[in-house]
Amino acid sequence: MPNAIDYIDWRGDIPFEVSPFNEVDNLLVCKLVSLDFTGIVPSEGEVGIAEAARGYFDKFGEEDVRRGLLMAPGAVTMLKKMLEAPRFSGLRLRDYVYHVDPAAEKQFSAMTVVLPDETRYIAFRGTDDTLVAWKEDFNMGSLDAVPAQTDAASYLMRAAWRFNGRMRVGGHSKGGNLAVYAAMHNPEELQERIIEVYNNDGPGFRESVRGLPEYQRIAPKIHALVPQYSLVGVLLSHDADFEIVESTETGISAHNGYTWQVLGTRFVRCADFAFRTRVYNDAIHGWADGLDLQQRQELTDAVFGALEATGAKTLTDLTEQKVRKALAAAKDLFGDEEQRELFMDSMELLFKEYAASARRALPLGRLRRRKKAQE
Question: InterPro entries of this UniProt entry (predicted)?
Answer without folding.
Answer: AB_hydrolase_fold, Mbeg1-like
